[in-house]
Structure formats: structure tokens, C-alpha cells
Amino acid sequence: MRFSPFEATPSSSFSSSSSSSFSSIPNSKSRKVLFSALQAQSSTLPREAPALPPPLPPSFLSTAPSTRGKTIFSGLQQIWTSLKGGRGKADPDGGGEGGGGDNTAFKAMLASVAVIYGTNFGAIKYLDEANVDVSIVTAIRFALASLALCPFLYKAPWPVVLRGIEVGVWVSVGYIAQAIGLQTTQASKSAFICSLAVVVVPIVNAIIYKKKAPPTTWLASLLAVAGVGLLTLEGKGNPPCIGDLWSLGQPIGFGIAFVRTEQCMQANKGEALAMTASQMAAVLACSILWVSFTLTSNTPDLSVLYEPVNLAALFYTGVITSGIAVVAESVALAHISAEETTVILSTEPLWAALFGSVILGETMSGFGYLGGAVILLGCLVTQLKLPKTLEKLLKPWGEGVEEAGED
Q1: Helix, strand, or coil here: 366?
Q2: CA 31, CA 26: separation in Å to the nearest integer?
Q3: pLDDT of 18 above 70
Q4: Counting runs of H as helices and runs of E as strands, what totals does the chain give?
Q5: With b meaning 16 or more CB within 10 Å and e meaning fewer, what string describes 38-52?
Q6: What is the pLDDT of residue 92?
Q7: CA-to-CA distance for 195 and 327, rounded, in angstroms?
Q8: How does residue 348 score in pLDDT terms, banded at 50, 70 and 90?
Q9: CA distance 257 to 338
């Protein structure tokens, strides 16, 4: 085949074909002409541009102030849309466990709820000092919450109301255990024990609902048990008390309630207000039943509760921490799994310890703070990926728990 220097030659084959072409041309002048033609042709061929590094993912702090404002407004709009019964544009799949939507706004809302819940322990402890039976204080608290939310029961779907009543029974277990425990234990200790719900939720899902729990759950369980041991012992000055034992009812009641609320809200998005209203009504009924068992024949003196500070504490624990906060929690559980919810709420003890120190003057020993840190470490472990060696060690234990649930 005759070679022509004017034929298009790919740049990749230039080096391999040039040496053979030059050797077949005896005249040096012809070689120079051929070389010049090939060099001119190669200079006109398109060249690939160097690859650019991938762009860095945008962060909230790196965005412009105007963009941050739009992000915050979009998140608030997303929450408001969910509360009314719809789905925001940023959340096409509903988010949470079964959806792929952006649930950052709901996580931020839960972080705010954790602050409110943390202050609740100190407020209840403060009301205990009024020397009024704890069952009566609890009943008044949830009467206020029920009164504030009862309008949302109007035309509420019966399946949601019935599920709310069921959840309310489990929540009653947690709240009553909390109220009794706070009579003899510190608010910060009670809050740290309450954070064990982050371990109860995946265990309940694994045993009852056959949802496989990751190995990190079982490591978190071990750390949580060790943390509670350190927290309750606290050395010679602060021996374990009956209030510590009562406080263990909190993670059980609240943990099961988280699982059941998630299941209801995932199927009934937009019914958070009706769900919470029926839930508070059930807690009120259980509290009245509790009063009937503890109230003696003597009429209790409730005049001390009429003091402005005590009235403010009752309003705060009834409307804010039991009404508004639970509504926000129910809205979030429609978009976030129960496991992730308990991890976010596990910051409660930090706010409870701060509030108890400032308002009540509570202090803990080194053992107490170490135990609280170990519990929080167990909560954070659930969001980490363990080394493969440690996963293999924990896997048989997890399978044993799941098999026990099947039996």
C-alpha cells in the first residue's frame, strides 16, 4: 500500500509508524519534506485537556450567607409541610429509613428537642422539692399537655389514635419511672441512665421485629452497661440508691415507644399532632390511675404549687417538654429511624448535667462523670464502623440474641 504524508494519522500511532516510513525513503531531502508534513499534521490534532480535580462537597459553613438563609428557610418549610400532612420538595421519598430524602432539618430539630428534654430532668427535680406527691404533679403536668393538644383529636384517624394510646402506655412507664427515680437520685444521673434507650431500640428491633442489628449495637450495649455501673457506684460518697433502679425503667419504656412511634409515623406522615394528642391522653389516664393508688384519705395541700415559680415549672414540663417537644419528636420519626433518633437524643445528659449544676447545684464525682462519658461513647459507637476483627468477635453474640428472639 502506497503511503501518503497527507493522510490523517492518529497521534497515538505516529511514533510506531514514523521509523518504518523514514527507512523506506532513500533521499534525505524527501525525508525532510515527510518529517515537516507529519510534524505540521500532528500540531493540528486535538489534544485532551488535563483532568480537573473533583470539586469539594459543599458545607453549610462554606456557603454564602444568602445561601445559608435559603437553606434554613427550606428546612423550616420542610418541617412545616410535614407537620401539615404533606411532603416537602426536598424530601420526595419521605426520608427516614425507607426514603432517600434530605432529613437534615429533622435532625437539627431533634438536636433542639434533646436540649429541651435535658432541662426537663432538673425541672421535675425542682418540683419534687415542693413536697407534693409526685403522682399528683405528674397528673397535673400531663393534664396541661393533654389540654393543649386535645383540639387535634377532632376528626383524627382512629388507627392513629389507637396507636397513640398504645405508645402512651409505654411512655407512661418511662415518665412514671423517671418521676419516682428523681425523688432520690440526681437529675444528671437519671438523664444518663435514660440515654440507654439508644441500646434498647436496636435490641427490641432485633428480638421482636427480626431486624438485624449491626455489631456496633452489641459493643454499645457493653459500654452502656459498664457506664451505668460506674455512674451508679460513684465511690463511697454516693452509693447506689433505689432511684437509680427506678430510672432504668426510662430506657425500656421510652425505647419501645420510639420503635412503635416510628412504625406509626412512617405509615401516617402528617399525623404527628393527632398521634401526640392521643399519646398524652393515655399518659394522663395512667397518671390518674397512679394517683388513685397512692393518694391517701387526706386531702393533699396543693397551695404550694400556686407559687409563680412552681406554676412556671408545671407549665414548662407540661406544655413545652411534654407537648411541643413530643410533637417535634413524632414529626422527626416520620423521616428518621428510631435508632438514629435515640443517638441524637443521647446528648440529653449533657444538658441535664449543665441545667442541674446551674439550677439545682448538683455535682457528680469522677466516677459519675466517667460513667456518663462511657455511656455517651456507647451511644456514639452505634454510628461508627468497627474493625473487621472486632466485628467477628461481636457477631456470634448478636446472632445469639436474634436466635433467642426467634425461639
Answers
A1: helix
A2: 8
A3: no
A4: 18, 0
A5: beebeeeeeeeeeee
A6: 38
A7: 20
A8: confident
A9: 9
Residue 373 grid coordinates: 462519658
Looking at residue 96, its pLDDT comes to 42
Which residues make Cβ contacts (< 8 Å) with residue 28, sequence separation at least 6? none
Residue 214: φ, ψ to 5°? -70, 160
Q: 320, 330, 331, 268: which is closest to 148 by C-alpha?
A: 320
Mean pLDDT of the chain: 75
Specify the residue for cell string 532513500.
26
Amino acid making up residue 328: A
Pick from 280, 296, 312, 323: nearest CA to 136: 296
User: What H or E segment, with its residue span, contains residue 154?
Assistant: none
Between the alpha carbon of residue 171 and those of residues 166, 251, 266, the distances in Å are 9, 10, 19
pLDDT given at position 90: 37
**C-alpha to C-alpha distances, 7 to 10, 48, 210, 263, nearest whole angstrom:** 10, 21, 70, 71
The total of other beta-carbon atoms located within 10 Å of residue 406's CB is 7
Question: pTM for the whole thing?
Answer: 0.68
- Give me the helices (H) in 45-151, please: 65-84, 104-128, 134-149
Alpha-carbon distance of 188 to 325, in angstroms, equals 19
* Three-state secondary-structure class, residue 269: coil
Q: Are 198 and 342 within 8 A, CB to CB?
A: yes
10 Å CB burial of residue 156 (0-12, 13-18, 19+) is: middle
142 touches 318 (CB < 8 A): yes
Residue 34 Cα to chain centre, angstroms: 73
CA-based diameter of the chain, in Å? 127
CA 197/CA 316 separation, integer angstroms: 23
SS3 209: coil
Separation between Cα atoms, residue 7 and residue 9, nearest integer Å: 6
- DSSP, res 80: H
For residues 68 and 62, the answer to whether their CB atoms sit within 8 Å is no
Give the three cell numbers for residue 356.
442541674
Q: Are 119 and 313 in contact (CB under 8 A)?
A: no
